[in-house]
Every structure is written in structure tokens, then in C-alpha cells.
Amino acid sequence: MVCKAGDSEFDQDVTVLSASRPFSVALDFATGSLTPYSASLVRPLSDMASAFEDQAAVESILASGDDPVIYRSYYPDVPNEPDHLAFLTTTISAGTVGSEFFMTRGHHHYRDSAELYVGMSGEGIMVMESRRGDLSQQELAPSVVIYVPPGWAHRTVNTGNVPLTFLAAYYGDAGHDYGAMESTGGFSIRVYRGDDGPQLRRSATRDRVGPS
Ligand code: PAN
Ligand code: ZN
User: Fold this and answer.
1) pLDDT at 209 over 90
2) Rg (CA), the chain
3) Alpha-carbon span 27 to 167, nearest angstrom
4) Phi, psi values for residue 95, rounded to 5°
5) Residue 166: exposed, middle, or buried by beta-carbon count in 10 A (0-12, 13-18, 19+)?
6) Domains defined for the chain, CATH in brackets
7) Cβ(154) to ligand 1 under 6 A?
8) Which of 45, 73, 74 to mutate to test the pocket of ligand 1 (most atoms within 8 A of CB)?
9) CA dihedral defined by 71, 74, 78, 79, rounded to 10 degrees?
10) pTM to 2 decimals?
11) Of 34, 149, 158, whose CA–CA distance to 89 is shortest?
């Protein structure tokens, strides 16, 4: 669900920014909000139900009438053009679907290009997978900067008990390609709540779905 300036409860703080001139925004490290922002995206469970491995758990949550917000992002108004640097904040709620932690949908960029993540509050793990199948996991926490090289799909997982907030900056013309990972069953590894902390295990959906 994408909310443009003018249609959400936060609208009193919205001013239209123009990236043709220098601008600044205030970043709230605890909530992840940008003030002002130009658009925000709210992703409830029903919007990304297929991303989670335990489909019975998804159905049970939704059938109970609950539809938790998995994450929310705030965007300034930066053009999708090569010389611009797009950035946004994301806040992932704390929680699990079955035992799998709440996470972002995860994507490649249409144009393979690098991205920088900066942790602001909470704790989590970034799962990254290259186009040739190499895997990497990096812990994301306040003050941690993670470099995502060109060609590495990335997903962020909240492994803590409070919201995980971070800032991401990427090339304006990078584009977001969700289908490349989803068409092959998603990332090769998933992050679950274990008795002694987060556990990374091979994804069963990745094994089931593959390119024909
Ligand atoms: C991030 C992500 C954001 C939401 O800003 O877009 O955290 O994750 P999904 O887009 O995978 O649902 C980023 O990597 N931008 O390029
Ligand atoms: Zn990205």
C-alpha cells in the first residue's frame, strides 16, 4: 500500500520536497520517520503472505482477523534518475510468522548497483544472495553500516523484540526487482526464532520452486 503525501494520518508533517535544490530532512532513529517525507509505504502481512515459509501460520493469523504491519518505509522525493541518490527509512515490526521472523520482501535491483544500509535502532540480520548463488549474512544494529555490492539480492530481518529501523541509500535509477527472487522460491536461507537466538536455515520453498 503506497500512501502519497496528502492521504495518511501523518500528513500534517508533509511538505513537498524538490531534489533539484539541496534539502534536509529530520531522521528519527527510534521510529524511522523522516520529517518531512513525500511518500510512505505500509506493508501488512496480507501484502506479502507468500514470502513466509509457514503458510498455515499465515492463514491462521489472517483468519483471526489480524493483519500485522510487517514494515513501513518513508521516502523523500528524489527522482529515479542515475545521478540522484535515493534513500529511505524502513521500520520492521518485531514478531514472527510461525517461527520465522518478520522481514522485508527482499529484492534485486534491475540495474546491478551498490547500496548502503545504516542501522538506527533495534537489531537484525541482512541476508544477501548474489546472482551466482553466493550467500552472506550481516548483523544490522545501531551505527552499523552494511555495504551491499552490485548484483546481491538483499532482505532485512528483525531478530529482536523491538522494531528494527534503518536507512538505505541507492542509485536513483537502480529500480526494484522483486520477481527475480520470488520466481525461484525466494532466498536460499531463512531466519527463525530458536531457543538460543536467531537460527539461519535453508529455505524449503527455495527447494520446491525453481526455474523450469
Ligand atoms: C530498502 C528496501 C526496504 C523494504 O530500502 O526497499 O527496506 O524492503 P523491500 O523493498 O525488499 O520490501 C532497499 O533495499 N532499497 O533498495
Ligand atoms: Zn535495495
Assistant:
1) no
2) 17
3) 9
4) 155, 175
5) buried
6) 2-202 (2.60.120.10)
7) yes
8) 73
9) 40
10) 0.90
11) 34
Q: Burial of 22 by CB count in 10 Å (0-12 exposed, 13-18 middle, 19+ buried)? A: exposed
Q: What is the pLDDT of residues 46-67, one digit of tens each?
A: 999 999 999 999 999 999 999 9
pLDDT in tens, 145-167: 999 999 999 999 999 999 999 99
Mean residue pLDDT across the chain? 90
For a ligand 1 pocket test, name from 103, 107, 181 the mutation site with the most ligand atoms within 8 angstroms of its C-beta.
107
Q: Is 42 helix (H, G, I), strand (E, B) or coil?
A: strand
| Number of continuous H segments (helices) and E segments (strands) in the chain | 3, 16
Contact between 194 and 203 (Cβ < 8 Å) = no
Q: Is the CB of 168 under 6 A from ligand 1?
A: yes
